[in-house]
Amino acid sequence: MAEAEATEKVAEEINQLAASRAKVRARNAKWDLNIAIFLFAILIIVIILLFQGIGIQVVAPIALFGLVMVWLVGWRRGRELYQSFYKEEEAKLEQKPKEKEKVVEEKKIEETIDEKIQKALRERWK
C-alpha cells in the first residue's frame, strides 16, 4: 500500500516537473525566425501603405490582422512544442531512476569483483 502511494507520488512529481520544463522550453522556442520575418513583412506593408497616402482606417485593420495572425501562429506553435517537449521531458525523467539503478548495480558488481580479486590475492600471499 505504501509502495503504491510512493510510486504515485513520484509519478505525479515527474509529471509536474516535465510540465514545467516543457512550458519553459516551449515559451522560449515558439518565437522563431519565420514569425519574425512575418512581423517585418507586416511592418513593411503598413509603412508602404502609409507612404502611399492610404488612410489609417484601412492600414489599422491590416496591421491588427497581421498582429493577430502572428499571435495565433505563435500560440499554436507554442502548444505543439509544449506537447512534444512534455513527452520528451517525461521520457528523460522516467529514464533517470532506471539509470541510477543501473549505476548502483554496476557498482555492486564492481565491488564484488574487487572483493573476489582481493580474496584471491590474500590467499595467494598466504
- Overall radius of gyration: 29 Å
Give the count of structural domains. 1
Counting DSSP E segments of at least 2 residues, the number of strands comes to 0
What is the overall pLDDT average?
78
Which percent range describes the beta-strand content? under 5%
Structural class: mainly alpha
Q: How much helical structure, as a percent, in the residues?
A: over 70%
Specify the overall morphology.
Answer: elongated
Report on this structure.
Helix content is 93%, strand content 0%. By secondary structure, the chain is an all-alpha fold. The protein has one domain. Helix 1 (2-29) packs across helix 3. It is elongated, with a radius of gyration of 29 Å.
A few lines on this structure:
By secondary structure, the protein is mainly α. It is 93% helix and 0% strand.
Keywords:
elongated, 0% strand, 126 residues
Fold blueprint:
Elements: H1 2-29, H2 33-51, H3 56-125
Helix pairs in contact: 1-3, 2-3
